[in-house]
Specification:
This is Cysteine desulfurase. The structure is a single chain. The mean pLDDT is about 95. The protein is built from 15 helices and 12 strands. By secondary structure, the chain is α/β, with parallel strands linked by helices.
């Protein structure tokens, strides 16, 4: 089996699964309990927080555990809206955000918030000038993803941070779910970012766990009310086995990060160079510094994306249409639509997404199968 769908979810590392199992078996106490067993769970929870913070060069008190990227995005956006609503009702985002962000914006719009959706260029990137021009006296939040999950375009999040320095009252949220372990640390953790959201299952941790970076001193309203966990900002008994497993997964991800990134670039380049030779191929991703190393989005003219996915699946190669969140709904790519790609091309789009475990040998096998399938599709469409 060749698994090229890592932007949808990654396979948990065996040592991560082992950590999860051991904590589940041996330390099942509630971290909020006062007895010794609860104290043991609490100390492990805080050790995991400290490990994640150290790996990201931030303070432990700036790390808050969540159930994943969707909750993190909802919390950063809606929590800021609730906290800052007396100062304004205007929020700026891009037209190519993940559904967790886009639907949060729709929810707030129904409550009377004013949302600006920035356009993107042909590479799927926003213009910082457009963002600055969109800022109003009532603007309270800017929310921009670091890496687009469909085509892999890298947003100018560091430059946006610089532009926002003169707007100290505007909060800045970065959805970095696709950006962790991709050589973008300095861009994402820029000195203006207030909230940054992450999801564990995107880097070999279990599903259902994630974390949010919240800049020290930055205020946000809680979405969950209850027992007061996470400094009264995110109530719910902590998912300790998953949190400790996530901390281990992050440590593994950050080990030899540059080498892992280069491996993904090499594989992406190999596939990109091969498929570009064919006249019915359209590529929406590039192998350049303003695109992530792990995502390659392309289309075969005249062939639906779902047909391409199932054709590769018959050879035990797993890719996806542009987004796992919309693939079963048979929706056209929202990102490609925002990039003004014609619908007949966007509905043919598929995505390869790599991780550090993929190999050149797998890429060569993909290329062999691609040639077979391309020839079949060409005969059908000729």
């Amino acid at each position: 089996m060749i698994y090229f769908d890592n932007s949808a979810t990654t396979k948990p590392d065996l040592s991560v699964i082992d950590t999860y199992a051991k904590v589940s078996e041996k330390i099942w106490g509630n971290p909020s309990s006062l007895h010794k067993f609860g104290e043991q769970a609490f100390h492990l929870l805080e050790q995991s927080r400290q490990q994640i913070a150290k790996l990201l060069s931030v303070s432990p008190e700036e790390i808050f555990f969540t159930s994943g990227g969707t909750e993190g995005d909802n919390w950063a956006i809606k929590g800021t809206a609730l906290e800052r609503r007396e100062y304004g009702n205007h929020i700026i985002t891009s037209s190519i955000e993940h559904p967790a962000v886009m639907n949060s914006m729709k929810d707030l719009s129904k409550l009377g918030f004013d949302i600006t959706y920035l356009p993107v260029n042909k590479n799927g990137q926003v213009n910082v000038k457009d963002l600055k021009e969109a800022i109003k006296p009532t603007t309270i939040l800017v929310s921009i993803m670091a890496v687009n999950n469909e085509v892999g375009s890298i947003q100018p999040v560091k430059e946006i941070g610089k532009a926002l320095k003169e707007y100290s009252k505007v909060s800045y949220h970065i959805d970095a779910v696709q950006g962790l372990g991709k050589g973008l640390h300095d861009d994402i953790f820029n000195d203006r970012a207030d909230f940054i959201t992450f999801s564990g299952h995107k880097f070999h941790a279990p599903r259902g766990v994630g974390f949010m970076y919240k800049r020290k001193g930055k205020k946000i309203a809680p979405l969950l009310s209850g027992g007061g966990q996470e400094h009264n900002l995110r109530s719910s008994t902590e998912n300790l086995p998953s949190i400790t497993a996530m901390a281990r997964a992050l440590r593994l991800l950050k080990t030899d990060e540059k080498q892992k990134i280069q491996n993904q670039v090499n594989i992406k380049q190999l596939i990109f160079d091969h498929i570009k030779k064919y006249d019915k191929i359209i590529t929406f991703s590039k192998v350049t510094s303003n695109f992530a190393p792990h995502i390659l989005c392309f289309a075969i003219k005249g062939v639906k994306g779902e047909t391409i996915v199932h054709a590769f699946e018959s050879y035990d190669i797993f890719i996806s249409t542009t987004s796992a969140c919309s693939s079963k709904k048979h929706l056209a790519s929202s990102t490609l639509n925002a990039m003004k790609i014609p619908e007949d091309e966007s509905t043919s789009a598929v995505r390869i997404s790599l991780d550090e475990h993929n190999t050149v040998e797998e890429a060569k096998r993909f290329i062999d199968v691609f040639d077979i399938l391309y020839d079949k599709f060409k005969k059908i469409n000729s």
